[in-house]
Amino acid sequence: MENRDFIQDLSRRLAAALPDSARTLRDDAERNLRGVLDTAFERMELVTREEFDAQAEVLARTRAKLEELERRVAELEGTGSDEADPAR
């Protein structure tokens, strides 16, 4: 939804840069620019800030879990190697 608003706003601004004497051209340009911008942004596969922030949060939680699991494995390996080696 935000992308659509952004595209409409951008196409309006670009069309507004045309002189008032070219009103018909200006209206056509706004419609055409909106279509071109829509297509260009779809090809870029952009995400919203909210989607990006949500994925960053998931990544941070995953990293924290991974670090905890690595710590636990290292702890268990340390304990397990002492028990497996009777010379110690």
From TrEMBL:
GO terms for cellular component: cytosol. The keyword Cytoplasm applies. Pfam families: BMFP. Keywords: Coiled coil, Cytoplasm, Ubiquinone biosynthesis. One of its GO terms (biological process) is ubiquinone biosynthetic process. It is found in: Cytoplasm. Pathway: Cofactor biosynthesis; ubiquinone biosynthesis. The keyword Cytoplasm applies. Residues 49-79 form a coiled coil. Required for efficient ubiquinone (coenzyme Q) biosynthesis. UbiK is probably an accessory factor of Ubi enzymes and facilitates ubiquinone biosynthesis by acting as an assembly factor, a targeting factor, or both. Belongs to the UbiK family. This is Ubiquinone biosynthesis accessory factor UbiK. It comes from Thiohalospira halophila DSM 15071.
